[in-house]
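To whoever is on call:

I kicked off a structure prediction for a single chain this morning and the downstream step that reads the tokens threw a length-mismatch warning. I double-checked the sequence; it's 119 residues and nothing unusual in it as far as I can see. Pasting both halves so you can look.
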Amino acid sequence: VAHFFTLKQWYQRRVRVLDAAKNRVRAAKTADEMKELEQFVDEAQKKFDEQYELCREVLEDRDRQNAEMVVHLEDLCRVQVDYFKEAHELAVEMEKKVLARPTKGKEVRNRKASSSDEE
């Protein structure tokens, strides 16, 4: 992220330099001065175009990386849902088996519940 902001700041500086150069050309008083300033504008435009291309590439790469991360996140969610669905089914099955056993566990639970009601 820090790298992106550095690129953005550099890009914004290039825009300001290019705008300033164009304004200087408009304010030129002689043909020689205008020619010299037009060369400066051409250089500034070239640097601006290079920076624009670099920023575009960085953003496209970031978009690609984000798309890959979303695919991985979708896969993780799908696997997690399947895992917890199966865990729930196993827990329900185990509960049915445990509650169906002829033990005194139900009686102990009922006694605990009734003794806490009496308190």
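Update from on-call: the warning came from a stale cache, not from the record. Cleared it. Sanity check on the structure: The radius of gyration is 36 Å.
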